[in-house]
Amino acid sequence: MADKDINPMTKTALELGPVIAFFAAYLWLKDRIFTIGGTEYGGFILVTAGFIPLMILSTALLWKLTGKLSKMQVMTLVLVVVFGGLSVWLNDDRFFKMKPTIIYLVFAGILGFGLMRGQSYLRHVMEEMMPLAEEGWMILTRRLALFFFALAVLNEAIWRSMSTEIWVYFKTFGLTAAIFAFFITQGKLFETYGTKPDDDSGSEG
């Protein structure tokens, strides 16, 4: 399927909409208990059950409108379905809370594996957005791999030691803010190793 142009607002709504809906629904239902088929379910489990089809729908619409999905989007959807499904099936919120840990460990592992081979896999997915010299890509990849590993550890520490409500706030806002802050702090690297579109791939700007 050929790539298609999409309104940036529509794309953002499809990417962030399910997460915002999850957060709003959790605040609404967090203190309620539902009895279904003789089994009691907390609000978090019910919200997770609703989040799974919403995530599938938004990802399908994104694919239909853009004609493509990144490997990151596909993997995230698979993990949402698997770990969210386990949480609902077993009535245990721990599986869904572990999902960010798995995602960030996988990201760190993939980037680390590429670095061991002397390659920046990050370059393959982000080069069009921010062209860098080869050395810049290697530095950024090392930093991001360590950053993802730190996020995985942080997620584990928070969901295991703090309340579900604190974890939901962390998942919705904390992780997003952390990733944004990471790239903001890489300004010096982008300035030092940034290249112009018509520069040779190995030249430094």
Helix and strand arrangement:
Layout: H1 8-29, E1 33-36, E2 39-42, H2 43-66, H3 71-90, H4 94-116, H5 121-126, H6 134-161, H7 164-184, H8 187-193
Antiparallel strand pairs: 1-2
Strand order in the sheet with the most strands? 1-2
How many structural domains are formed by the residues?
2
Compute the number of helices. 8
The tally of strands reads 2
Low-confidence stretches: 200-205
Query: How large a portion of the residues is in β-strands, by DSSP E?
Result: under 5%
- Structural class call reads mainly alpha
Protein name: Inner membrane-spanning protein YciB
Function: Plays a role in cell envelope biogenesis, maintenance of cell envelope integrity and membrane homeostasis.
Subcellular location: Cell inner membrane
Family: Belongs to the YciB family.
Provide a short characterization of the protein structure.
The chain is mainly alpha-helical and 205 residues long. It is built from eight helices and two strands. It has a two-stranded antiparallel ribbon.
Account of the 3D structure:
By secondary structure, the chain is mostly helical. It has two domains: 1-73, no CATH class; 93-205, no CATH class. The chain is 74% helix and 4% strand. It has helices spanning 8-29, 43-66, 71-90, 94-116, 121-126, 134-161, 164-184, 187-193; strands at residues 33-36, 39-42. It has a two-stranded antiparallel sheet with strand order 1-2. It starts with 7 loop residues before the first helix and ends in a 12-residue tail after the last helix. Mean pLDDT is 88; it is low at 200-205.
